[in-house]
């Protein structure tokens, strides 16, 4: 080997970076820099030394108020985000195993720092306290998670489900009516599942059998469900026996799981819940297992990615799609039951208030993955609960608080999930050749 060759071999090979990786790093650095600047402002702006907090959702005998020395906690949050910024700038967070925990810690640090700033320096006689965000988040996220899992189930099979909002409305209405008639909240859950399946059957009929544009069908079904439930609920008297028997359902009782419900901070929030919430927990585990660990789940994913190849190996594509859409409809209908027998009781016009579309956004943000969709739905529920908590103080303008969950939805879907690729055959009807 010549000296020139040896010299070239000894020279260091320049590191090759993927442009997408550089883009992700730069985006993380920018976001963490903004978060760090805000936390520094929060820490410097506050004047009072303490802030009140409670470990439960509201002040009670079991959850009295406590005082927290605010300044050390606020500056600890600053330090945690500063460390995350250094790690991002030095490209240590290339691997998800490091990046995801770091971003979770940074997000929690920002939440704590913001809440301390928000609840410090309160004027007037009433002094609000920081409450545990878990109970409110779980309550708000329950229908979102069930709707998002329904969307994942449908779209993994190749059928776009815009009709989640309609399935929520029909499920909520039937839950209220049948629970009132039978005076059983559990019967309301069953009726809600049936209602969601009925709307899912309509979606499958037009999208799979008659091959109508699936987005158009979904929008039409939402309008149909909204108009139909509004018409039917207006036929129910506002008082008397008619309302009692048709729109005054019992609400699900909370069930405490022995042992787990006594865990500090999380026990009451997670394990003293209604049957509907426990069914949501089951769905969080069951849907990923069914999709990724069973033969039927493999068929669902195959007809959503390459229906022609699935057909050549003997899989009946449209039958599997029908099954997936009906299962998804049942999940979404169950989510709709939250709005009546799971929380408020009686049904009101458009009671779901557009949350079916937020569940659809969670599907996209979660990359059509059931675990990702669940986390996205939890994020949206957390943002709504934050709006409710911070509204007690009023330091942030109420108009911004009202828009915050939707702004967070747009930012999350548009900027923080990178490039998302739906199933290859999503929205494409299959005709056997």
Count of structural domains: 2
On the 0 to 100 scale, the average pLDDT is 87
Question: What is the fold-level CATH name, i.e. the topology of the largest domain?
Answer: ABC transporter involved in vitamin B12 uptake, BtuC
Helix content: 55-70%
CATH architecture name of the largest domain: Orthogonal Bundle
Kindly report the name of the CATH homologous superfamily of the largest domain.
ABC transporter involved in vitamin B12 uptake, BtuC
What is the tally of beta strands? Answer: 4
How many individual helices? 17
What is the strand content? under 5%
> SS-based structural class?
mainly alpha
Task: Tell me the series of helices and strands, N- to C-terminal.
Answer: HHEEHHHHHHHEHEHHHHHHH
Round the Cα radius of gyration to an integer and report it. 25 Å
What is the makeup of the main sheet?
A: 2 strands, antiparallel
> Which of globular, elongated, flat, extended, rod-shaped describes the shape?
globular
Strand order of the largest sheet: 1-2
What is the CATH class designation of the largest domain? Mainly Alpha
Question: Segments where pLDDT lies below 50 for 5+ residues?
Answer: none
Distance between the termini: 62 Å
